[in-house]
Specification:
With 389 residues, the protein is an alpha/beta fold. The chain has 2 domains: 170 residues, Flavin prenyltransferase-like (Rossmann fold), CATH 3.40.50; 208 residues, Rossmann fold. The strands form 6 sheets. An 8-stranded mixed sheet has the order 12-11-8-13-16-17-19-20, sandwiched between helices. β16, α12 and β17 form a beta-alpha-beta unit. α3 crosses α5. The protein is elongated and about 80 Å long. The two termini are 40 Å apart. The structure holds flavin mononucleotide.
């Protein structure tokens, strides 16, 4: 259920509904009569997509809608939430469909207040907000900045991305609270000279998905990442940006002993130039490139006196399961995620992946192609189950 109330920010609810539909949520919209001054029901109806669910705007429009919706919904998001509606909800007033629904509903509610800074900081409003919080309602706090009314201060509705994150959190179990998780992501760059480097096709998406998923589940996450163009995943406490495999190794060794779980989803270079020129190498004829092997991060982690539960990744160009199993054994890993990067929908720089998960016990699980975000949660499920044994 999405509740829309009479704020200047009401138009933003269209984008929210569209994003929820993108996530395949079934959305019903309830509009207060004040919200109709800011946005038409048609805009929200169209945002609901092909099914074009008409928003409900009154108590008497569909008798018992407040009870039926409350029984049907899995989450109630009120965005924007006015001071007036928040006041009504805090005091059990049920004089319109939205507030009656709230009383009939006993599930998770998220409210995204939007109002003038004077209203947001008023003692009367603060009391109502506090009282709603004590009823288990989660506030998605507004942002500071310039508001539509021209005022400066706190009161602009939280961004749609933030609201979507809160919605995801509402459905995600906090089963990693108290766990410290170290994740590596992305490629490394091995410099030839100040302008050139050797790198690989890793985008960092799998590692970022794992870090974001662990944070969503309540873990304290440190992400060590090579150069990527990705936005930092929300909720990740510490991000260490590195360039070379050597820097990645040093950061991992520094962080690993204070981590409960290490997931090495990065693709650090296996080779680095024997030497790196301090000035740009001139283009004159050919150039002999001599490479040496980099230090093996997983192998060095396995030698730590207090090593975390360690998960490695094996990116292969073929179904070389034996190589993955050998890596698991040689580097004393607890789990290895094998992926064949030549397969459609798997590997570098795509949003999906297809993997096989090998455990210490020799057993393995073939996982079908899925979004990296979903796969991240599945891997964490397996890590938690295996680490608990
Ligand atoms: C132009 C205009 C903009 C308004 N913007 C807001 C707002 O952003 N936040 C808010 O709490 N109230 C705002 N109000 C006041 C609410 O619309 C008013 O309190 C109304 O009763 C809210 O009804 P509802 O909570 O049932 O939607 C605004 C009023 C007007 C006329």
């Amino acid at each position: 259920m999405v509740g829309v109330t009479g704020s200047v920010a009401a138009y933003k609810a269209v984008e929210l509904v569209r994003r929820l539909k993108d996530q395949e949520a079934d959305v019903r919209v309830i509009m207060t009569s004040a919200s109709l001054n800011f946005i038409t029901p048609l805009s929200l109806e169209l945002a609901c997509g092909a099914k074009k669910q008409k928003p409900l705007t009154g108590l008497w429009e569909e008798p018992l809608a407040h009870v039926d919706l409350a029984a049907w919904a899995e989450l109630f998001i009120i965005a924007p939430a006015t001071a007036n509606t928040i006041g009504k909800l805090a005091n059990g007033i049920a004089d319109d469909l939205l507030s009656a629904c709230f009383l009939a509903w006993h599930g998770k509610t998220l409210i995204a207040p939007a109002m003038n800074p004077g209203m947001y900081t008023h003692e009367a409003f603060r009391k109502n907000l506090e009282s709603l919080r004590s009823l288990g309602v989660t506030e998605i706090p507004p942002e500071a900045g310039t508001l539509a009314c021209g005022a400066e201060g706190i009161g602009r509705m939280a961004g749609i991305e933030t609201i979507m994150e809160a919605a995801k959190r509402a459905f995600t179990p906090r089963d990693m609270e108290g766990q410290s998780v170290l994740v590596t992501a992305g490629p490394t760059r091995e410099p030839l000279d100040p302008v050139r480097f050797i790198s690989n096709r890793s985008s960092g998406k799998m590692g970022f998905a794992l870090a974001g998923a662990a944070a969503l589940r309540g873990a304290a996450v440190t992400l060590v990442t090579g150069p990527t163009s990705l936005m930092p995943p929300s909720g990740v406490g510490k991000i260490i940006r590195v360039e070379t495999a050597r820097q990645m190794l040093e950061s991992v060794l520094k962080e690993a002993s204070s981590s409960r779980i290490l997931i090495m989803a990065a693709a650090p270079a296996d080779f680095t130039p024997e030497s790196s020129a301090s000035k740009k190498i001139e283009k004159s004829g050919g150039y002999d490139l001599k490479l040496k092997a980099t230090r093996d991060i997983l192998l060095e982690v396995s030698m730590l006196p207090r090593r975390p539960f360690t998960v490695g990744f094996a990116a292969e160009t073929g179904q070389f399961f034996d190589r993955a199993k050998e890596k698991l054994r040689k580097k004393d890993l607890d789990m290895i995620i094998f992926n064949d990067v030549t397969m459609a929908g798997a590997g570098f720089d795509c949003d999906t992946n297809q993997v096989s998960i090998f455990g210490r016990d020799g057993g393995h699980e073939d996982v079908p192609v899925m979004e990296k975000e979903d796969l991240a949660h599945l891997i964490l499920d397996r890590v938690l189950a295996s680490a608990a044994q």
